[in-house]
Design brief:
single chain; alpha+beta; Ribosomal Protein S8, Chain: A, domain 1; 3 domains; globular; S4 domain-containing protein; S4_RNA-bd; RNA binding
Amino acid sequence: MNANVYQHFRKDEHPFIDSVGNWLEQVESQYAPYLSDFLDPRQAYILETLIRQNSDLEFQFYGGYGHAERKRCLIFPDYYEPKEEDFEVELLEIVYPIKFSTLSHGKVFGTLVNTGIKREYFGDIISDGTRWQVFVAKEIANFVVAQVEKIGKISVRLEEKKYTEIILPKDDWTREQTTISSLRLDNLISSVYNISRQRSKQLIESGKVKVNWTENTRPDFLVDLLDIVSIRGFGRIQIQELEGKTKKDKFRLLLGVLRK
């Protein structure tokens, strides 16, 4: 990968950039498609940027349904025509006693992670308020079905479903425009959730904040386009657009916000 590419991204994103470079080389040398694991929106943005700048290869994203947040990417030569099955995404439904118990995104997510499965192997967890489904990489679907028998104290079983059986997810995200003085993590959280900068800093330093599903304890961390910030007890923020600066040198942002 061209060394100049690195200057446009964070230092902790450089290993991912190197991985993308390897994927592109593999497709170009073998003249055959390459399928990535599930990528978060920020990774997908980086990958798309690198392909457009450094390669004539084609690419498509797919996460199991139209509005998927986490997606796999198929990188392929121009002769290739991808099909849905090329993305190897399986849909699993969590069957549980609906009348007597309640599931949450956090409980489902925690259970999947505790099976030892890497985050990269599963995509979105969706719910219509009652039913719960999860998209996973085909190569680990059988393992997940065999391993997950309880979520918390609730007995469950996972069943493979056809794509015609995808539920309509309940979407509580709102789009909000805001202006902030800096792109610091503590400043963003303080502004969106209307809490003090000190309170925001405490949440971050106590490990209650994740950026792109990774714990981040740096209040001065600078957020960027398509980052997803999760704040335990408050909700989530996605940086959907950076809309430039105001005359007073403040950043104009378009955000997706989920409030608990």
